[in-house]
Amino acid sequence: MTNPLLERHELPPFDQIRAEHAVPAIKAILDENRQALEHILDAGDFTYDSVVSLREALDDRLNQAFSPVGHLNAVMNSEEIREAYNTCIAMLSEYSTEVNQNQALFAAYQAIAGSPEFETLAAEKKKVVENALRDFRLAGVALPEAERQAYAALANELSSLQSTFNNNVLDATQSFSKLVPVERLEGVPENAMSQMRKAAENKGEDGYLVTLDMPCYMGVQRYCQDRVLRREQYIAYGTRASDRGPDAGRFDNSEIMQQILEARLKQARLLGFDHYAALSVERKMARSAEEVLAFLEDLAARSRPAAEKELQEIADFARQHGGPEELEPWDLAFYAEKLKKASFDISEEELRPYFPVPIVLKGMFEVVRRLFDIDVRAVDDMPVWHPDVMTYGIWKDGTLIARFYLDLYARANKRGGAWMDDCRVRRRIEPAGSLQIPVAYLTCNFTNPVGDDPALLNHSEVVTLFHEFGHGLHHMMTQVNVAPVSGINGVAWDAVELPSQFMENFCWQAESLAFISGHYQTREPLPEAMLDKLLAARHFQSAMMMVRQLEFGLFDFRLHVEFDPEEKGQVQQVLDQVRAKVAVVKPPAEYAFQHGFSHIFGGGYAAGYYSYKWAEVLSADAFSKFLEEGIFNRQTGEKFLSTVLENGGVEDAMKLFVAFRGREPEVEALLRQDGLLPDAA
Ligand SMILES: [Zn+2]
Predict the structure, then answer these.
(1) pLDDT over threshold 70, residue 681
(2) Alpha-carbon span 481 to 124, nearest angstrom
(3) The pTM is what?
(4) Residue 450: which pLDDT band, with cuts at 50, 70 and 90?
(5) How far does the centroid of ligand 1 lie from the alpha carbon of residue 469, in Å?
(6) How confident is the model over 412-430, as pLDDT tens digits?
(7) 14-23 pLDDT, tens per residue?
(8) Exposed (0-12), middle (13-18) or buried (19+): which is 540, by Cβ within 10 Å?
(9) How many Å apart are CA 428 and CA 438, to the nearest integer?
(10) Is 409 helix (H, G, I), strand (E, B) or coil?
(11) How remote is the CA of residue 441 from the centroid of ligand 1, in Å?
């Protein structure tokens, strides 16, 4: 029996790949890779080609076989593919631990870095070696034996603590529910109501079940007239997995948080860092913990006055519309929603007719043609996994440089959300020197077309499409020849969102909207009056949102700088200090959102939450150069291409930014984009 995942194909043969191919293929490749790696290390005489290039080839073959499996699991899920995927993931994680902890391999890289050959290597190859050495170091491989084991034990402990943290949050979220009669839900929109009705039915009850699920939470907080109910739900949500609130102590994360912070601190200390935040920035664009703190505090100081004004505006509005004298946190979303409706009479649905998919796509490709002088054209020679999938090639100066799949519409058994993933990475295949061009998967979950009409997007969906296409460009426009730093590989993750958020800007400019919009019946572009409303609504409460994000970012970062296991109650203390300085909304004393802050306690954002704002500054500031020089200025476009987009992870992200912008990033552009500073002349 032949296995298409084990054959060489320019593109994955999606018309032949079946779930049963996955496990045997991955198993066979992992076996071969293990042998090949052993062979490399036994042979001695370590050179870039004999070690690094060969490892790259092994990884690339593995990636080519697994990428379609991972992708099908996400977009064509079935019991068979899920089972195959999970088996593969377990095998792959075992393999990657083996490789990442391989001391002989580490020694081989050290030998290469210390050899005369190293100085003669191209910059991209040097970077691959340096990154690998850094990653070995940060995985504890360079430590003496006893400490190495201690480090590995901490890593295991952390992974189990983090999953306990997440499970507690999940259990606490599901634990709360309150059955109410319809009278108490006045104002709540239909979709949230029907969910609550179904939830009650599932429990065999009459009435409506108020829960902490996001659609229900938003539905009640934003629209429910009943203030007592809003308060009850707000407190239940904000005390999840803590020692407070209706489930006090039942899923309490207090001790887990302490242990997580302690294990992280120990890891950082073993590696020679003062604190975990210093370890976190080691792989990021930010150069030091101090730089991150100064960045967050600067933004907070500049946006807080506007946030206070916005809060006052809601309070005034509430008072004038029969609301309470003193606005409490559970009144905020409710009156903000009313104020928004009163100020900007605009609904996302009204805009849909102006954004039919064929026009939006044509317009988006026109944007990049003007910016980067590239041609995006539909192709029909790429096997697909579903008839909805569209396929494209990108040409520059007549040469095909990349391809991508576009899978736009929601369907059963497709994971929600939108994302870009790589299918093939650009690399030069040694020793023949032939070029493998990059291939990307762009996936969205937009509303399907109805009848003979094209699919109509709302404006947020258009923004999402541009965002993912921006990630795609970063992956596909790369000129790098070695996979580990090609495309988005090796890019510091506080810089990864630069191209994606950059592309979003073209959805907010009259000049580009003129051709990315067009009424599906009349072809009339988005009317100016609608654009004005859209822009005004974009800035609504942006300062309050900004300080909220900064509160999270500062809390996360300071905690990972200052944590001291000897000091009790420090988590709450740091949070209180941050709030005193940054927040305009003061929650009640029992509020304990930190116990449910999965980003930083349960996942990868520890001492990294700041990255959201950091990347927003980069993209806003990059785009401000286009605002100054013309949003379709060819020179500016060429410069963005030759610095940010083409260099992947070869150069430090700050260097690339400076090469493009002529200086380091400044926060003013973001403040302007959010309407917190007047537009530049
Ligand atoms: Zn993104």
Answers:
(1) no
(2) 8
(3) 0.93
(4) confident
(5) 10
(6) 899 888 999 999 999 999 7
(7) 999 999 999 9
(8) middle
(9) 11
(10) strand
(11) 14
- The string of DSSP codes covering 613-655 is HHHHHHHHHHHHHHHHH-TT-HHHHHHHIIIIITSTTSS-HHH
d(CA 327, CA 305): 18
The DSSP code for 548 is H
What domain count does the chain have?
A: 4
Strands (E), 316-397: 375-378, 390-396
CA of 463 to the centre of ligand 1 (A): 11
Which residues are 393's β-sheet partners? 377, 403
In this predicted model, what pLDDT tens digit does every residue of 339-372 receive, in sequence order? 988 888 777 778 899 999 999 999 999 999 999 9
Domain that holds residue 580: 254-344+541-609
Calculate mean pLDDT across residues 24-30. 98
User: Would you say 643 and 656 are in contact if contact means Cβ atoms under 8 Å apart?
Assistant: yes
Does the pLDDT value for residue 1 go beyond 70? no
Q: How far apart are the CA of 148 and the centre of ligand 1, in A?
A: 35
Statement: residue 478 has pLDDT above 70: yes
Strand, coil or helix: 518: coil
Does some domain include residue 670?
no
- What pLDDT score does 345 carry? 77
Same domain flag for 101 and 21: yes
Task: Examine the fold and report which residue of 552, 574, 609 is the final residue of a domain before the chain moves on.
Answer: 609
Query: What's the CA gap between 291 and 541, in Å, rounded?
Result: 27
The two tokens of residue 90 are 């377990």
Q: Which of 139, 162, 185 is the last residue of a domain?
A: 139
pLDDT over 70 for what percent of the chain?
100
- For residues 310 and 359, state if they share a domain: no
3-state secondary structure 576-588: HHHHHHHCCCCCC
Is 393 inside a domain boundary?
yes
286 CA distance to ligand 1 middle (Å): 19
Helices 254-270 & 145-175 angle (0-180, nearest 10): 160
Interval between CA 295 and ligand 1 midpoint (Å) = 21
Q: How far apart are CA 554 and CA 316, in angstroms?
A: 29
Find all residues with CB under 8 Å of 448, minimum gap 6, and list them. Answer: 409, 410, 411, 455
- Identify any residues that bridge with 232 across adjacent strands, giving them in sequence order: none
Higher pLDDT, 215 or 642: 642
Instruction: For residue 680, name the pLDDT band (cuts at 50, 70, 90).
Output: low
pLDDT-derived band at 5 (thresholds 50, 70, 90) equals very high
Q: Catalytic residue positions?
A: 468
Please tell me the distance between residue 280's alpha carbon and the centre of ligand 1 in angstroms.
Answer: 20
Does the residue 368 lie in any domain?
A: yes
Between the CA of 497 and the centroid of ligand 1 the distance, in Å, is 5
